[in-house]
Amino acid sequence: MSQSPAPIGQLLAIMARLRDPQDGCAWDLEQTFATIAPYTVEEAYEVADAIQRGDLADLRDELGDLLFQVVFHSRMAEEAGAFAFDDVAQAIIDKMIRRHPHIFGDAGQRTSGEQVQAWEEVKAAERAAKAPRAGLLDDIPAALPGLTRAVKLSKRAAGVGFVWPDTGAVLDKLEEELTEFRAEVATGDRTALREELGDVLFVMANLARDLDIDPEDALREANAKFLRRFRHIEARLAEDGRTPHDSDLSEMDALWNEARAQDKTRPR
């Protein structure tokens, strides 16, 4: 009996079987890079969610799902004659060695801060080598979540000095944008409202970057807090056999404040 392949080899074989033109899975055969991309993003978020919940068993499973996405894309690229999974692995191996000369080369040891600076310098050199005439911000993916992309755009611009001088200046800009947003609320112009709201969110992302806070993480925590407090409302109403449909804003607001009081006693 032949020995079973290593797990990664077995996974690659499974993917090849699913994409077999004759006997593969009809759904898998229909997929393209574009149709699979949303699943890839979703799996990355599910990895982050498992980490946030501290669920290591779930993290193992979600990392497997994310790995499968890499295998899926690699298989489609191999079929197109572009690259294969081994090329993907080799590319990241080469990049990690190149960006850590203090570990794999003859550069001296670096502190964490020095390594971050050196990493950005290497990335800048790589960008210049790929497209010497490209703009400074051109390679920041448009498909990133809006707040994350706003942070990356502003961080890159800050690297060449295009940045507010301090947090106070960012807060002043936020007040300015909020004033403009309030003015458009009064007009009811939907196009202008959308634009002004975008400006407010962009400044908020800049504020998060200035304070070294990940705005996506902060918003996820706010979402979790809202969910927790609304569930409290539902639970309290259920004690009387009711649902939020049977309540009103005044009662639900009072129950919300109960949940807020409980949150203040939660360990941070």
UniProtKB/TrEMBL annotation:
Q: Where is this region: Disordered?
A: 240-268
Enzyme superclass (EC): hydrolase
Q: Which Pfam families match?
A: MazG
Q: Which UniProt keywords apply?
A: Hydrolase
Per its record, the protein catalyses: ATP + H2O = AMP + diphosphate + H(+)
The record's annotation in InterPro entries points to: MazG-like_dom, NTP-PPase_MazG-like_C, NTP-PPase_MazG-like_N, NTP_PyrPHydrolase_MazG
State if Membrane is listed as a keyword: no
Please report the name of this protein according to its UniProt entry.
Nucleoside triphosphate pyrophosphohydrolase
Annotated GO molecular function terms are: ATP diphosphatase activity
- Domain NTP pyrophosphohydrolase MazG-like residue range list: 31-104, 171-232
Q: Which Gene3D superfamilies does the UniProt entry name for this protein?
A: MazG-like
Q: What is its EC number?
A: 3.6.1.8
Tell me the GO BP annotations in alphabetical order. dATP catabolic process; dGTP catabolic process; dTTP catabolic process; dUTP catabolic process; response to stress; TTP catabolic process; UTP catabolic process
Q: Which PANTHER family match?
A: NUCLEOSIDE TRIPHOSPHATE PYROPHOSPHOHYDROLASE
Domain of life according to the entry: Bacteria
Stated family: Belongs to the nucleoside triphosphate pyrophosphohydrolase family.
